[in-house]
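User: Sequence in, structure out. Go.
Assistant: Echoing your sequence, followed by the structure tokens.
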Amino acid sequence: MTDTTQRTQQQILVAGIGNAWLRDDGFGGEVAKLLSERELPAGVHVIDFGTGGLDLAYEVMRGYDALILVDVSRQGEPPGTLYVMEADVAEIDGQIEDGQMLDPHGMDPQTVLRFVKYVGGWPGRVFVVACEPEVVEDVGFGLSESVSGALNLAADVVLETIAELTSSAPTRAAGA
């Protein structure tokens, strides 16, 4: 069996990211936990990366057809509002200046995507499923009520995004 026949299904990484010790910033990890309890299509891998941005970047470079990042994002709407955004490879600055330091524990999604583009490991399509947070500045454990109330819907949105991705042909970027 050739390598092409072995890999007929898309490989999709769902990455929960955020710091569970900063209240609503733990949203991504909680959605990843919910998804791990659901039936997922073959080829879908769900991992809670927490604050391990460099670990996420290295995992993405293993060769996925798509990436879904799950995180919080302040967009100005009421807490608990969900967003689905598709990243455009052309809009991500793939440059890292000589001497520029990357904090492996503080790599936000934008920095992770910059790093992945810089090293040529961009997956075919990248989505961000995000939730408007209420509390991320205070150290503490546990999501606010509004963000906690959005968890099941967020998991459903991720599954809908996966369904959209698996119903279309693989679109891996050149050089990935």
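User: And one key feature?
Assistant: The first strand starts at residue 12 and ends at 17.
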